[in-house]
Each structure stands twice: as structure tokens, then as C-alpha cells.
Amino acid sequence: MKYYKIFLIPLLLISFACKEKNTEKHIDVSALNWSLSSIDSSVVIHDVSPADVHMALFKNDIIQDPFYRDHEKELQWIGQHDWKLETSFDLDKSFLKYIKNKIGF
Fold first, then answer.
1. Does the domain formed by 22-104 have CATH 2.60.120.260?
2. Using one digit for the tens of pLDDT, what is the confidence trace for 86-105?
3. 79 phi, psi to nearest 5 deg
């Protein structure tokens, strides 16, 4: 038991000393206002969730339900277009002091 304490105390001190503070910052961007548009801008939808192109088009009455009957055949054009999701947000200078920055959904 004596050797156990002698080994454990320095190990704990080393682990706490090596742990850096303020090394990671996370920003959740899922709650921001996103816009979905085709690259040629023939379709533009504002205030969408950054998840699925098909569901964004369906919820905005641009396409029929993609899961109903054979609608999948009629919706092949969606996969033949390039799409982009856009949003914007501000970062303050304190964000740059972190070693690792994560922007997540």
C-alpha cells in the first residue's frame, strides 16, 4: 500500500500540471439562419436547417414528398445539381486564443 501511494501522488500531479487550460472552444452553428441554394441560383431557400437538401425542398413546397410512391424518379434532378448551404456569424478575438476551434452542428 505504501508503494501505491508513492506512485499515485506524483502521477496525479504530473497529469494536472500537463493539462492545458483554454485549449478548446466549440461553437454550435445549427441554430443560425441558413440559406440553401443551387449553384446556378435557380432555387434559393432561406431559414433552413443545415441537414438535407431533399427535406428542405419538401418543407418549402418545391418538391413533392420524396418518400411517397415513385416520386424518387421525378426528383433525380436534385442529385444532378450542386447545392450550397450558407450562413454567417461573428467571432470575437478571444476565440483565436484557443488551440483547437470546433464549429459543429
1. yes
2. 888 887 777 777 766 666 66
3. -75, -15
